[in-house]
C-alpha cells in the first residue's frame, strides 16, 4: 500500500525531479508520520537525506529499511541542540510532538523543538543559503470564527492553557521565520498543515485523544466504544497523506515562494461524530459511541481556505475521505 502511495506522490511531483536529484536535504522529525513519507519521496527522487529525530514521538521503524540500506543518514538527537558543518541545499523542519496528550506530557520539549529548533534550522539555512520549509499547523488559528480559514486570519488562541505549548510554540516559530526573512533574507516558507492521516500513523495512538482517525479505527477494529468528546459536533477537515506530501514538496521546491505562508489540507469538512459513525460503517464494527467531556480549548471548527495553495502551487486534495479511510483501515488491520 505504501509503495502504491509513493508512486502516486512521485507522479504528482514529476516536474521537480531535476530540483531534487543529487541535492542534500536535512529533515528534522524524519522518523515521524509526515517526516517518514517525506524521506521516502526524497530517497525515491535520488536525494541525499539526513534525518534528525530524538524519537520522542517518531518511530525508527518508519525509516528503518532506508537507514539499513544506507539511503538515509540517521542522527538520533534533539533538534534544539543539533548542528552540522555539512553543506545543505534544503531543510524541512518538521520536528515536534503534535498529539495533545504527548505535548502536554512533554511541554518544555515541545516548546524547545518549535522555538529553539526553528532558530537552529534558520541559522543553518542562512549559513548554507538553503531553502527551508517550516511545518506549522492549523492550530495557530485556535478558535477562529472565519471558516474556511484564510492565511490572513490572526487566530484566536489561549496562550495560558493546555494547548498553548504547541499552538504558541508554532506561532513563535513562524515569527522567527518572518524575522530571519526580514533581517537576513532567509529563504523560508511556511506550511500550515490541517489534520492529516494515513498509513504510518502510530497505532499506539489509538488510545490517545488528538489523532481521531487512527484512534477511532483502532477502537472500531477492537470492538470497543468510539470515544467522542463533547457532543461531537466540532468539525475537522482530514487530508490523506499523499495529498499532503505533494503539497509540502511543492511548497518547498517551487521557485519564488520565499516568505510565503500557505494552508495545506482538505476542504472536506466533517463533524467528529460523523467521522466516528463513518468509521464504524466502513469497518463493519458493532462498536457504539461513548461521549466524554470536551477538553479545554478544543477548537470548534477546522476547514482551510485553500485558494492560495491552488493559486501558488496548483494544489488540491484529490483523495476523498472514504477512499483514504478505507486505505488506512486496511493498513491498521494488517497490524
Summed up:
The chain has 335 residues and is α/β, with parallel strands linked by helices.
Detailed description of the structure:
The chain is of the alpha/beta class and about 325 residues long. The chain is built from 13 helices and 13 strands. The strands form 4 sheets. Strands 3-2-1-4-5-6-11 form a 7-stranded parallel sheet, sandwiched between helices. A two-stranded parallel ribbon has the order 7-10. Strand 2, helix 4 and strand 3 form a beta-alpha-beta unit. Helix 1 packs parallel to helix 10, helix 6 runs parallel beside helix 7 and helix 7 runs parallel beside helix 8. The relative contact order is 0.14. About 0% of the residues have low confidence.
CATH T-level fold name: Rossmann fold
How much helicity do the residues have? 40-55%
Number of helices: 13
CATH class: Alpha Beta
CATH superfamily: NAD(P)-binding Rossmann-like Domain
Helix-strand pattern:
HHEHEHEEHHHEHEEHEEEHEEHEHH
Distance between the termini: 13 Å
Q: What best-fitting shape do the alpha-carbon axes yield?
A: globular
Give the overall average pLDDT: 95
Stretches with pLDDT under 50, minimum 5 residues:
205-210
Please describe the structure with a list of short key phrases separated by commas or semicolons:
335 residues; alpha/beta; Rossmann fold; seven-stranded parallel beta sheet; two-stranded parallel sheet; 13 helices; 17% strand; globular
Amino acid at each position: 500500500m505504501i509503495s502504491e502511495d509513493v508512486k502516486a506522490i512521485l507522479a504528482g511531483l514529476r516536474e521537480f525531479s531535476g530540483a531534487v536529484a543529487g541535492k542534500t536535504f536535512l529533515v528534522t522529525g524524519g522518523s515521524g508520520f509526515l517526516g517518514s513519507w517525506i524521506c521516502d519521496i526524497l530517497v525515491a527522487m535520488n536525494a541525499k537525506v539526513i534525518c534528525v529525530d530524538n524519537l520522542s514521538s517518531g518511530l525508527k521503524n518508519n525509516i528503518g529499511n532506508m537507514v539499513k540500506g544506507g539511503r538515509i543518514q540517521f542522527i538520533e538527537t534533539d533538534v534544539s541542540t543539533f548542528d552540522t558543518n555539512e553543506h545543505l541545499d534544503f531543510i524541512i523542519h518538521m520536528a515536534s510532538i503534535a498529539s495533545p496528550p504527548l505535548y502536554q506530557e512533554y511541554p518544555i520539549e515541545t516548546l524547545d523543538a518549535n522555538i529553539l529548533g526553528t532558530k537552529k534550522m534558520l541559522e543553518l539555512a542562512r549559513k548554507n543559503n538553503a531553502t527551508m520549509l517550516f511545518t506549522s499547523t492549523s492550530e495557530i488559528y485556535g478558535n477562529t470564527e472565519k471558516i474556511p480559514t484564510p492565511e490572513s486570519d490572526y487566530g484566536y488562541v489561549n496562550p495560558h492553557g493546555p494547548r498553548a505549548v504547541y499552538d504558541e510554540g508554532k506561532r513563535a516559530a513562524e515569527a522567527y521565520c518572518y524575522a530571519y526573512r526580514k533581517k537576513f533574507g532567509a529563504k523560508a516558507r511556511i506550511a500550515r498543515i490541517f489534520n492529516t492521516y494515513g498509513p504510518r500513523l502510530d497505532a499506539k495512538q489509538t488510545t490517545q485523544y488528538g489523532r481521531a482517525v487512527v484512534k477511532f479505527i483502532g477502537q472500531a477494529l477492537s470492538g470497543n466504544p468510539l470515544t467522542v468528546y463533547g457532543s461531537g459536533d466540532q468539525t475537522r477537515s482530514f487530508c490523506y497523506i499523499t495529498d499532503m506530501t505533494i503539497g509540502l514538496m511543492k511548497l518547498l521546491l517551487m521557485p519564488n515562494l520565499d516568505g510565503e505562508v500557505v494552508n495545506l489540507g482538505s476542504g472536506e469538512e466533517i463533524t467528529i461524530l460523523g467521522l466516528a459513525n463513518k468509521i464504524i460503517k466502513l469497518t463493519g464494527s458493532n462498536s457504539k459511541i461513548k461521549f466524554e467531556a470536551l477538553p479545554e480549548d478544543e477548537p470548534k471548527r477546522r476547514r482551510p481556505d485553500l485558494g492560495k495553495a491552488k493559486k501558488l502551487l496548483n494544489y488540491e486534495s484529490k483523495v476523498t475521505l472514504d477512499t483514504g479511510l478505507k486505505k488506512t483501515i486496511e493498513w491498521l488491520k494488517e497490524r
